[in-house]
Structures are given as C-alpha cells and as structure tokens.
Amino acid sequence: MATLSSTLTLYFSFALLYFSLVSASFSPLDHYLINCGSPVRTTVDFDHRRFIGDAATTFLASTEAISLTDANPSPRSSPIYHTARVFTRPSKYKFVLKNPGAHLVRLHFRRLSGSLDFSNAKFHVLANGFVLFNSLSMEMGQDFEIVKDYVIRVDSDILVITFVPTEKSKFAFVNAIEVISAPTDLIADVAQYVNFEKNEQIHGLLKNGFETMYRVNVGGWKVTPFNDSLWRTWIPDDEYLKSNDGSSKVYFSGRINYQDGGASREVGPDNVYNSARVIRSSGNSIPELNMTWTFPVTEGYKYLVRMHFCDIASVARGMLFFNVYVNNNLAYENLDLTSVTNGLLASPFYADFVVDGDSSGVLALSVGPSNTSLPCAVDAILNGVEIMKINNSVGSFDGEICAHAILKSWKMENGNVLYPTLAASFLLLIAFVIIHQRRTGVTDSVAWWRLPTEIPEVNLKYGNQLSSNKL
C-alpha cells in the first residue's frame, strides 16, 4: 500500500510539473505552419505539430504555382516533405502579422521522386527586403531535408516571402514554411564585438536579420523540436570538437534554475543546460589546456556567437572561474558564473559576441582555466553554442545582390523589356520618316508612310499576358 501511495504521489508530482511547464510555455501571437503543395487541409509532422495545406489558405498569392505529391515518399521523412509547391515565375506567400517585430522564419526543402529534376533547382528566396539565400550554394539533389532558419525583423503588419527562379533553373520550390513570433528576449540589442584589436560593446543588433548556421548541444544528445519551446533542433558537438583530451561530459538530473532577467527556456531549453563538457582539475594540479570547437564560416560576414553556460558540475558556489576565447582572442576573462546568476548553481547564463568571418574560413571557440581557477574543482564549462550569420550591407545572407536587383534582373531576363524596345523602335521609325521628308522635300505626300495606330492582335495577347504577370 505504501508503494502504491508513493507511486501515485510521484505520478501527480510529475503531472503537476508537466502542466506547469505547459502553462508557462511560449505562446506566439503569430504561428503559421504551412505544408506547401498539400491537397489535404492539415498534416501532422513527426514532432506532433499541425501544418495547414496552402491550397486551403489565402497565404499563396500566386495563381501560377504547381502542386506536386511524391508518389514514393521515404517512410523516414516527415509528411511535410511528401508534397511541394513549384513556381515557374516569382511567387509570393503573404502572412498578416498580429505582432510586428522579430519573427522566426523556417523554410523546409527536400526533393520529391518523379520526373522533375530537383537537383537543378536554382532560385532566390526574399523576405521583406532580405535575400535569404541563393540555392546555387545548396545541395538540392541530395536525399535529405534542408531547413533554413532565420530571425527576421518585420516592422510592418505583413511578411512577404518571395521565390524567384533563376534563368537556368526555370523553377523554384518549397515543401513547408514556418512563421512564428520570436520572444522579445531571443535576440539582445547589445553584444561584445571581439577581434585581435579590441573587445568592445556594440549596439543596434536588432536592426539586422540572422541566419542560424550552427545550433549545438555541447556534451549532450540531439534535441528535437518536440523538446524545445521554439521548435528548434540542437545537434551534438562531437564533429566540431577539435580535441577532447582532458575534457569530460557531465549530466544533470535536477531542476534548471531559470531566473527573471536571465536566460529563459526560449533562449535555451533544459536539455541543453542539463548537459555540458568540462575541464576538471585532478588533485592540486590545474590542467593547462583549453577545450576548442571549430566551425566553418564564410568570409565577409559578421557572426553573432552565443555561448550557453550553466554550472551543473561544481559542488559549491564560487569555485568555477575560467576564460572564454573567440578566434583565439580573449573574450571573457575570469568568468565567474555565480556572480552573474545571483549565486545560484544550475542557473543558465549566455554571452553574445560579434565576430568577423575572416579568410581562414573557420570560427574557433575555446574555454579553459584562468589565473583564478581553483584546484580540486571544475576549471571550465560549456553547455551550448549558437552561431548566426548577420546580413551584409545589402540585406543579403548569400551574396552581394540586393532583393530589388534580383527582381529587376528576373524581369529583364524573361522579356519584360519588350515594351521599352518597341517604344525605342517606334521613335526611331518616326525620326527616319522626318529625316526622309526633309531630304526629299516632300511635305504632303506621306500617306503611304502611314504609321500603325494599333498593335496587332497577336501582340495584344502577348502584352496582356505580360501585364497580368507583373509583380
């Protein structure tokens, strides 16, 4: 009987904890999950989220899009990848926003089996003036999902996502789209700018857009969207860890102490903060080593680097002191986590740094003991890493061409310069007539030079087709 009572007590304790977490979970005002090309109204993905078919909505502004269904879908792929929407000309999805500001935008891609050669799909994707990507750099022909993840600031009440095929490809496509209001504390406006010359505070980050390049759970397992309040994926750090000599993994089964004003569950979930890699001294000897992770990046862009810390390994407060390095530059000296978490252990803290992607093509992050590290203690810790590309001066995450130039280029490549050409030819014809009259002295005998006052029927049809396709 005592065993049954204990079991029921434990059950109800877990139930109360579950419902308290659900009630406190993030509820975005804007939350659009679109299954593109789907003939059914709703589709539930592997993470139990309900996507709406775009055929049953008013989000798709184009009338010239094609819906495709995979005749032989992979059983290992989510149902949202079993259909796609294909575009042969610039086409838009429009989302009315209840809450202007920063929004999460995720685009899902996977090729479908069939006659269409998705490996040759080359196109641009634009969002309210930002160039999100140019798929010339994406491996569309590979048999796996590609998720492009952004934080885009929207100052109006409408977000427009535009797909623009290139001349060589002739089509664009997308499998699914997510548009979700971002929490106000997701991106801070202030960060430390770190390079070999200086380490200084900069402001104005919120004016930019961000593309997630890496989201890593250090020392832990893969975190799926089902276990993240913002439906993010965090991957293990093993492939980025340069050397694990002298470091070890730690896991924590207790409660993570989130605090008001500190990192929230939307900034980082429990499953990121309850695991870590550490450097631990042995006896009275403090190891002379750093843990280092390296990430390939693109030269010419700035990156927002967010490092997540949560002291789940120390046996007491005030025992953990360590240094943080970004690209071998000292970013944080003698970091004492208890001083920034109100003296609590297992309380999350994150630090944001802005760094330049240089010619090396690699971004290196390190943590290691400092001059104030203590023997018989933990001497360095890291729980998670996020690296986000910041858009360049033309609002692009992929190249030096702005959104306006891409749209203008598509019009010129696809014959929308016909009317300027006809007008120029018309003016040249008039000039030729006038010059001819003056040279021959003819003043009143030009009836046979009659100029056309109507465009032939075939041109009228072509002209109507062009005008109906204006963006």
TrEMBL record:
Pfam families: Malectin_like. InterPro entries: ANXUR1/2-like, Malectin-like_Carb-bd_dom. Residues 1-24 form the signal peptide. The chain crosses the membrane at residues 417-435. Keywords: ATP-binding, Glycoprotein, Kinase, Membrane, Nucleotide-binding, Serine/threonine-protein kinase, Signal, Transferase, Transmembrane, Transmembrane helix. It is a single-pass type I membrane protein. Residues 34-390 form the Malectin-like domain. It is found in: Membrane. It comes from the Eukaryota. PANTHER family: OS03G0124300 PROTEIN-RELATED (PTHR34590), RECEPTOR-LIKE KINASE (PTHR34590:SF6). This is Malectin-like domain-containing protein. It comes from Datura stramonium. The lineage of its organism: Eukaryota, Viridiplantae, Streptophyta, Embryophyta, Tracheophyta.
